[in-house]
């Protein structure tokens, strides 16, 4: 049940990226790369949620949020306070993923 919810959430986020962000990327290699990256980062988020570890899931969610804001800011339109909205969740997400890994290894 939890795995199905994780897949549905990740799929919804992927659809959002593919409909709302990727079409604004320059055609060709950049757009193809954005499509592949969107699928990879949404898969990472899904797999993190399926670990049943709060730190992994929260870290992956923050990392995904950061990348969505980064992509929106780069390809769709400028985002107010983008530096803060990109970098704070990015580093917080990395910290939580690392903490989850340390906790799991202990």
Structural class: mainly alpha
Tell me about the biggest sheet? none
CA distance, first residue to last residue: 28 Å
Rg calc: 14 Å
Strands, count? 0
Strand content: under 5%
Explained architecture:
Helix content is 83%, strand content 0%. The protein has four helices and no strands. The protein has helices at 2-21, 29-49, 54-76, 82-105. The longest helix has 24 residues, at 82-105. The two termini are 28 Å apart.
Concise summary:
Helix content is 83%, strand content 0%.
Name the descriptors.
106 residues
Topology of this protein?
Elements: H1 2-21, H2 29-49, H3 54-76, H4 82-105
Helix pairs in contact: 1-2, 2-3, 3-4
